[in-house]
Amino acid sequence: MGGTAALRRVDLCAADEVPPGTMKLCEVEDELVLVTNLDGEFRAAQGICSHEYFELDRGMLTGATIMCMLHLSRFSLIDGEVIDPPAEWPLAVYPVVFEGGRVLIEVPEGPLEVNR
Ligand code: FES
After folding, report:
1. CATH number of 7-107
2. Percent of the chain's residues with pLDDT above 90
3. Probe ligand 1: pick from 52, 53, 89, 114, max atoms within 8 Å of CB?
4. Which protein residue has the closest C-alpha to ligand 1 atom 4?
5. 51 CB within 6 A, ligand 1
6. For a pocket test of ligand 1, which of 71, 88, 116 has the largest count of ligand atoms closer than 8 A to its C-beta?
7. pLDDT score recorded for residue 38
8. What pLDDT, on a 0 to 100 scale, did the predictor assign at position 3?
9. DSSP code of 110?
């Protein structure tokens, strides 16, 4: 009935499991979320390419972008936008919050948004 959807927090991993310049694929609620540490700045995005099924932690992390190694689509990890095709759909990205050394995302109630 209108209004703003309630938010919930989903625990992904310990912050120290993802050192600067690395990434980790975390399984949550039957979905995969890619946590990246861009030189101290954590980001979270859907873990599977929006083009076809390929795990993005097998891709190449460069600056604030991830390149999928199956067909070389490249995405921004800041807003999920497609930088290089063939992918047409952006990656869903999720706001990151920290709690007691853990990395969490804050998302609306209901299924995690994923573009496929
Ligand atoms: S599956 Fe990622 S670019 Fe095709």
Report:
1. 2.102.10.10
2. 95
3. 52
4. 71
5. yes
6. 71
7. 96
8. 60
9. S
Q: Give mean pLDDT, residues 15-22.
A: 97
Phi first, then psi: what are they for 15, rounded to 5°?
-60, -35
Least confident of 3-12, 29-38, 57-66, 74-83: 3-12
Q: How far is the CA of 85 from the centre of ligand 1 (A)?
A: 9
Beta strand residue intervals within 2-115, DSSP E? 7-14, 23-28, 31-38, 41-46, 60-62, 65-67, 74-76, 82-84, 93-94, 96-99, 102-108
**pTM of the entire predicted model:** 0.94
- Ligand 1 centre distance from Cα of residue 32 (Å): 16
**What ranges do the domains of the chain cover?**
7-107
Nearest Cα neighbor of 68 from 96, 45, 40, 87 is 87
Contact 89, 102 (CB under 8 A): no
Q: Taking 70 as the threshold, does the pLDDT of residue 1 lie above it?
A: no
